[in-house]
Amino acid sequence: MPTTPDPRELFQRYEGNPLISASDFPRMVNATFNPGAVEHEGETLLLVRVEERSGLSYLAVATSADGRTGWVLDRSRVMLPEHDYYEEHWGIEDPRITRVGDEYFIVYTGFSMSGPLVCLAVTRDFVHFERRGVLLPPEDKDAALFPTLFSGRWAMVHRPSPAMPGLGAHVWLSWSPDLRHWGDARVILPARRGGWWDANKVGLGPPPLLTEHGWLTCYHGVKVTASGSVYRLGLALLDRDQPDVVIVRGDEWVFGPHAPYERAGDVPDVVFPCGWILRDDGDTLDMYYGAADSFVALATASLRQLIDHLHSHPARGDDAVLADRAPRSC
Questions:
Q1: Is 128 left (phi over 0), alpha (psi -120 to 50) or beta?
Q2: Which of 17, 51, 161, 220 fits as disulfide partner to 139, beta carbons 3.0 to 4.6 Å?
Q3: What's the start-to-end Cα distance of the chain, in Å?
Q4: Quick count: other Cβ atoms within 10 Å of Cβ 286?
Q5: What are 242-283's pLDDT values in tens digits?
Q6: pLDDT computed for residue 162 by the predictor
Q7: How many CA atoms lie within 13 A of 153 on its CB side?
Q8: Diameter over CA atoms, the chain
Q9: Residue 171 in contact with residue 144, Cβ under 8 Å?
């Protein structure tokens, strides 16, 4: 399903997209999408959400030597939901992977009988997964850990959903001394209102990426149109030492559904990344994303160009709602 590259775009779609689809699995599944991504043992490793025909999802490992071709699906490397446990009764979804030392911290969504919640598992080999339990109760999702401590505390980005309609769903940051008890929560990226592309509902994409300018953060915004919702991506930069402080937030989306495999699927008009990898040259950024809730795809950008674009297209005025001016809450 090739699409013609546009040199004006910051992210360029890989010409071999989609990378992984349901037909690549040996038995019938409905869809493959929303992969977490890391480099592991010299390969690119994706932890792919696989939705079975039952409607419930599990996570499967796919590896590639070059991050583009020759994807290997190992049936022995899967993370299956524990259906007997309340927090995973209806499956597990949308992993974000953060490497800490020689361990990989997987923050994922558990689909409990009370709604989505934030869970944590830890692995070294992506064969054995040690569950650490629920971090945040329903309804909460789109969560990822930072790979470093800040004054002895862990920081996690997440997106709770308010029970009352019309309040907006915003990106928050919370703190923990032990990965179990979370508090000192704060909105860092509010959903805007009105005609903005990211009005009313936003959520984290891949885990924040540390750069010399701060933590580069990619988030999705949902614009409701007459024909349905459109999921696009924007950028923000968080302070290196105080990640709950927003240095700059972009005023426009930088990647949206355009290719046929992004516009047609189980959920049309969706691009949804859960992982990206900065390559060894320090500039090539490979972003792995779910397309239309049906396929795994790849888009590549220059980190330098992303930072330059963000600084040259800052949100201004009241609609920017920079979080460093917002009150703290617990």
A1: beta
A2: 161
A3: 48
A4: 18
A5: 999 999 999 999 999 999 999 999 999 999 999 999 999 999
A6: 86
A7: 16
A8: 53
A9: no
Give the model's pLDDT for residue 316.
77
Task: For residue 281, count other CB atoms closer than 10 A to its CB.
Answer: 8
What are the tokens at 312? Answer: 């040259």
Q: Is the pLDDT of residue 166 over 80?
A: no
The one-letter amino acid code at 81 reads P
pLDDT digits (tens, 9 = 90+) for 317-328: 545 544 444 444
Task: Express each pLDDT in 190-246 by its tens digit.
Answer: 999 999 999 999 999 999 999 999 999 999 999 999 889 999 999 999 999 999 999
3-state secondary structure of 306: helix
Nearest to 238 by CA among 186, 274, 278, 281: 186
- pLDDT score for 80: 97
Q: Which residues of 2-23 are buried (b: 16+ CB within 10 A; e: fewer)?
A: eeeeeeeebbebbeebbbbbbe
DSSP letter at 263 equals: H
Shortest CA distance to 61 belongs to which of 38, 82, 84, 83?
Answer: 38
pLDDT over 60 at 2, yes or no: no
Q: Is 80 helix (H, G, I), strand (E, B) or coil?
A: coil
CATH class of 12-314: mainly beta
Q: Side chain identity at 135, as an amino acid letter?
A: L
Backbone angles phi, psi at 260, to 5 degrees: -55, -40
Rounded CA Rg of the chain: 18
**What is the CA 143 to chain-centroid distance, rounded?**
8
